[in-house]
Amino acid sequence: MSSIKGIIFDYGGTIDTNGIHWGEFIWEEYRNSGVAITHDTYREAYVHGERSLAKNPIIEPTDTFHSLLRKKLAIQFQYLRDTLPDNHFCDEKAMEIADACYNKVKETLKTSCAIVERLSGKYPLVLVTNFYGNMPTVLKEFRLSEYFKEIVESSVVGLRKPDPALFALGVEALGLKPQEIVVIGDSYRKDIHPAGILGCRTIWLKNICWEEEPIIQGYEPTVTTDNIANVPQIIEQM
């Protein structure tokens, strides 16, 4: 019988993409759509977009995940238009990529939502995420709201991963000892290491990474897997 009594989930890159970093998730749709840029150039546009969203109140609390993706891609394409001489980065293509990503997420969530629902019947769940202030809207959009006891969202509480204090709020919300909690996330640096610092056990959902994340001795993930479908069985064996 598992000694785990509560679960903390990451959202982006974990529940919505099954361990694929969002940078790589979007890049695949760039390639599918025929946008002729290098991966390095794309990375510049992606990083610019993420920094813009983090620094500026672009995303509204009422934004759905669909509208968030469209805003995200619009910023990336504006950056490409501003920095590259070949001005063929039209808004229509940006929206095409955003919509393709959204449809892929909906497919992934068919599995992820079933896993979350199953786990919520056995354990209290808390969501700890770096997000834009619209997480409740997104969870409602995907019919996930009822499964989480509390949402700890970076832009709301004024803390960001990899600060362990963000996870400490999740531990507090569960009202359990850290060693009784498992944290599930796709990033070693932002999820696994800070959770390990607190003494939580961890499941690293490692699929397609943005970059190599060196593991710090003494803070190794408890378990590493490449598929969220494996998580319930892993937890039962902890």
3D architecture notes:
With 238 residues, the chain is an alpha/beta fold. The chain is 49% helix and 11% strand. It is built from nine helices and six strands. Helix 1 (22-33) packs across helix 4 (91-120), helix 2 crosses helix 3 (65-83) and helix 7 packs across helix 8 (188-198). The chain is globular, with a radius of gyration of 18 Å.
| Helix proportion range | 40-55%
Uncertain segments: none
State the secondary-structure class.
alpha/beta
Element pattern in H and E? EHHHHEHEHHEHEEH
Number of strands: 6
Rounded Rg: 18 Å
Describe the sheet with the most strands: 6 strands, parallel
How many individual helices? 9
- Which shape, going by the Cα principal axes? globular
What is the distance, rounded to the nearest whole angstrom, between the alpha carbons of the first and last residues?
A: 8 Å
Strand order of the largest sheet: 3-2-1-4-5-6
> What is the residue-averaged pLDDT?
96
Please outline the helices and strands.
Elements: E1 6-9, H1 22-33, H2 39-55, H3 65-83, H4 91-120, E2 125-129, H5 135-141, E3 150-153, H6 154-157, H7 164-174, E4 181-185, H8 188-198, E5 201-205, E6 223-225, H9 231-236
Helix pairs in contact: 1-4, 2-3, 3-4, 7-8
Features of this protein?
238 residues, alpha/beta, 9 helices, 49% helix, globular
Summarize the structure.
A 6-stranded parallel β-sheet has the order 3-2-1-4-5-6. The chain is α/β, with parallel strands linked by helices and 238 residues long.
